[in-house]
From TrEMBL, chain A:
It comes from Eragrostis curvula. GO terms for biological process: glutathione metabolic process; response to herbicide. It catalyses: RX + glutathione = an S-substituted glutathione + a halide anion + H(+). SUPFAM superfamilies: GST C-terminal domain-like, Thioredoxin-like. Residues 88-214 form the GST C-terminal domain. The lineage of its organism: Eukaryota, Viridiplantae, Streptophyta, Embryophyta, Tracheophyta. The keyword Cytoplasm does not apply. Pfam families: GST_C (PF00043), GST_N (PF02798). This is glutathione transferase. Residues 2-83 form the GST N-terminal domain. Gene3D superfamilies: 1.20.1050.10, Glutaredoxin.
From TrEMBL, chain B:
GO terms for molecular function: glutathione binding; glutathione transferase activity. It catalyses: RX + glutathione = an S-substituted glutathione + a halide anion + H(+). Residues 2-83 form the GST N-terminal domain. It is an enzyme of class 2 (transferase). One of its GO terms (biological process) is response to herbicide. Keywords: Transferase. GO terms for cellular component: cytoplasm. Its EC number is 2.5.1.18. Residues 92-219 form the GST C-terminal domain. Belongs to the GST superfamily. Phi family. It comes from Eragrostis curvula (weeping love grass). PANTHER family: GLUTATHIONE S-TRANSFERASE RHO, GLUTATHIONE TRANSFERASE. This is glutathione transferase. InterPro entries: Glutathione-S-Trfase_C-like, Glutathione-S-Trfase_C_sf, Glutathione_S-Trfase, Glutathione_S-Trfase_N, GST_C, GST_Phi_C, Thioredoxin-like_sf.
Amino acid sequence: MAPMKLYGATLSWNVTRCVAALEEAGADYEIVPINFGTGEHKSPEHLARNPFGQVPALQDGDLVIFESRAICKYACRKNKPELLKEGDLKEAAIVDVWVEVEAHQYTSALSPILFEVLIKPMLGGTCDQKVVDENLEKLKKVLEVYEARLSKSKYLAGDYISLADLNHASVTLCLFATPYASVFDAYPHVKAWWSGLMARPSVQKVAALMKPSA
Amino acid sequence: MAPVTVFGSAVFANAARVLVCLEEVGIEYEVVEVDYMAKEHKGPEHLSRNPFGQIPALQDGDVMLFESRAISKYVLRKYGKASNVDLLREDSAEEAALVDVWTEVEAHHYFPAIAPIVYECVVFPARLGMQPNQKVVDESLEKLGKVLEIYEARLSKSKYLAGDFFSFADLTHFPYTYYFMKTTHASLLDKFPHVKAWWEDLMSRPSTKKHGAGMFLEP
């Protein structure tokens, strides 16, 4: 059985979101780089995988899918459905809730910060501090909710790790590459939760992939 | 047995997303209003249902959920089989993946392009008496046009977004598209015949016809 192919650059936190899930689920996969510099993401071959010309995309036999969170769920369903709490209606719903929260509350506040601080300079632009500051305020409000939640349970969906926690790994690793990681200091339960995630081999694999090569 | 309770009425697009799913599975439910203008969604009672102070939330016995897409999936998963309704296709990892793909596309490509038009042209005039910001509307229309080109290509190859079967991926487009089609920009869909046909098919369903009637926002 051929390994699954994850298409994209490991610089992308959307690609590495999938790496965390694929690693944790113990999936057999390989990363196939897509070269943004040569416009490969807009080539007909890649558009056939992802019609929006973005990364990641995943190929597993005849199946080709895109959107990182859809890929993460597929990886879990096939290899480790307990990460989704499949089979338990209540717990599966709570996992789904916090998977949505990562996307619509946490990453929606964090990714504009990451874009301004990490990506824009690479594209020859300058960081818009106003955007960073506004989104840091939004992020703090989200972290207040996380702090309350993680005071009551070890992980976001309950006392078990789930895809909801793992989906935070790539963007949070990026946060720690900016000067703003100290935003976590005011939230001790969030900090402890993050330390726990960072210790997992799956998240360490993502951290290693994100390091710029020597 | 207490019926399922949804906090937030069909006027709220994200609540409407959940309500059409409840209609599709045909179970009994009740709707409890949350007074947005009185900031009831930020009050302690609603915050205990949804810590982000947003609408909707859903209670089913001892289960309390928020985030409309998570709630919708719970409803479809729990009650679908009994009504012979399978909009998630979770018995097939491949089909479920395609449903997930196009559900994510709605959330991350479609919604960001269409929602500003709905807020500017429907919500702000009705709730705040404001006139639409034409710059925002024009930029969003351009983005939406590009997204619809991709939908047109997709729907030229399959009857529905995830394949030749109707799924939550299609249904999740209902609320914001419904409001968009009430604006003067509805004619944008005329450029995309497969998208238009897909929308008309979606609107022919009893669930969308019923909740469309509750989505009434006038100044």
